[in-house]
Write a structure and sequence with these properties.
Elements lengths: L3 H9 L11 E2 L5 E2 L1 H12 L14 H4 L4 H9 L1 E3 L7 E6 L2 E10 L2 E6 L4 E6 L11 E5 L7
Antiparallel strand pairs: 1-2, 3-8, 4-5, 4-8, 5-6, 6-7
Length: 146
């Protein structure tokens, strides 16, 4: 069985990777964004097989109403009222839920965010760009019934 510790260790292994829109290469010479890091972490630990949703526009959250990122998440994870270690936090930025992260110990998350130019772990209460945004929590250990 996949443990929260495995998920968190994999998420932390991406720390220091530069932010790169649609990137999916771990390490200081690579690059990743907030969507691909979540796919990378969860597929690496075995929650699901890797899949590639690219290409997608850099500012899709500003110009669309379709919740395509949230819909992908909800294919693999169940929404919860509270965060779980190793689970996902998904923020509403712009018009739709469009910024994903891996919860380490709430309110700490590992994420790739364009404004910081790098993957890092932080306390989201201190994040000026996200702290007032609506957030949903997802549990990858609970697969939605279809």
């Amino acid at each position: 069985m996949i443990t929260p510790e495995q998920v968190i260790a994999e998420a932390r292994s991406w720390i220091g990777t530069p932010y790169h829109h649609m990137g999916y290469v771990k390490g200081p010479n690579g690059g990743v964004d907030c969507g691909m890091i979540v796919i990378g972490v969860y597929s690496s630990v075995g929650f699901f097989d890797f899949f590639d949703p690219r290409p997608y526009p850099r500012q899709f959250h500003l110009h669309q109403q379709q919740e395509w990122y949230k819909n992908i998440v909800e294919d693999f994870c169940t929404e919860e009222d509270a965060p779980v270690p190793g689970g996902m936090a998904l923020w509403k930025v712009g018009r739709i839920f469009s910024h994903g992260s891996i919860v380490t110990e709430w309110p700490r998350v590992v994420h790739a965010i364009a404004s910081s130019d790098i993957v890092y772990e932080e306390n989201n209460v201190l994040m000026t760009s996200l702290r007032n945004q609506e957030v949903k929590f997802y549990n990858p250990w609970k697969v939605p019934s279809k």
